[in-house]
User: Fold these one by one.
Assistant:
Number 1:
Amino acid sequence: DTAVSQTPKYLVTQMGNDKSIKCEQNLGHDTMYWYKQDSKKFLKIMFSYNNKELIINETVPNRFSPKSPDKAHLNLHINSLELGDSAVYFCASSPSGASGLYNEQFFGPGTRLTVL
Amino acid sequence: AQSVAQPEDQVNVAEGNPLTVKCTYSVSGNPYLFWYVQYPNRGLQFLLKYITGDNLVKGSYGFEAEFNKSQTSFHLKKPSALVSDSALYFCAVRPNSGNTPLVFGKGTRLSVIA
């Protein structure tokens, strides 16, 4: 049973292209996240959605646009890809509610994006 | 703003020996603290967390961590390391109020040598 899944696993593309990464969770969680892990393994939050509404939007270029069609899905669309966008992108989810702040997050397997 | 410091990029330990992976934090108010582990080419997996109460928390795979408020630390420990514990370990913190994101440390690579 896959809890948090991401597609594709690998994505190789040219500078200037537009690409999307999809994420789905079957855990019934209300909150979903996108993280970027750079080549030095540093992990940083990009976005967080709760019940399809954006609640956290860190300093991320406007070229990145998350979309949540329902609370089980959070997709990431990237326009005009740049070399610096090369990284591993992780989707995660967690329950919310009264205990939301201290609930652990469940991570997907990651999507390795390489921009040439 | 909250922050996490993992002062060691790499920790090497012999199999069967105790291990410690260090973490200190800075947060306004009281913290919620987490440890996650990342195996090669995988996503992060939750190990344990501190919310409140007993300063010693036990988690998955025999790991435990001790919350020390005066030293603002949350070091990860295991009494006897296994080769299979070799992975990248992340400490993370968020304050216990407000809608602020979880902040991760830069990670510590643990190598357990047989």
Note: The interface with chain B takes residues 4, 33, 40-45, 48, 55-56, 58, 90, 92, 101-102, 104-110 of chain A (CB under 8 Å).
Number 2:
Amino acid sequence: EVQLVQSGAEVKKPGATVKISCKVSGYTFTDYYMHWVQQAPGKGLEWMGLVDPEDGEAYYAENFQGRVSITADTSTDTAYMELNSLRSEDTAVYYCAKTRGGLPTSLDYWGHGTLVTVSS
Amino acid sequence: QSVLTQPPSVSAAPGQQVTISCSGSISNIGNNYVSWYQQLPGTAPKLLIYENNKRPSGIPDRFSGSKSGTSATLGITGLQTGDEADYYCGTWDSSLSARLFGGGTKLTVL
């Protein structure tokens, strides 16, 4: 059974950095890309970026470029998303999701989400 | 403002059918597969349709997808109260090298 288990909720102050993990099981981690998606309260899904666990290459959305880093640790089958210079607008649920196939394919399994609250 | 345009809301009575549209451009929907996701309140999104019109295992055939040019449509027949959710279309944009999502459509089953 494919599972993506994310780390727990975080509370951060403005200007801080948060790093969320996504540990996978039930499939070969390096065979599929891992995406990260932000969902602010009451808002839609916003793509942040992805990583190819095979070689670590990452692509980032323009809106998050320079503030986000997405990495993969093949020794633990875990993907990470680090977001820095946090501001109140970053308060959101963050999801990891794996592709069904190659780079442009759909996201077939999602993590349960990690709530990040940014507040002074 | 999402690059993929969806209606904010749709509604219909139980047992009826509804369609949700998703409009894009040649660089995204026009040249890539479209997928659809269902997000029930308080839960993670779930893949409903992939490669324009295919259903993952376990998704009932009440859900269907289609694509024509730079637009795609999700259809749901035999509406049930349990179908009340937010629905998102998604695709890859070849020019941006980015994954895109529509703004989402809230389905209300009256």
Note: The interface with chain A takes residues 2, 32-33, 35, 37, 39, 44-47, 50-51, 56, 86, 88, 90-92, 94, 96-104 of chain B (CB under 8 Å).
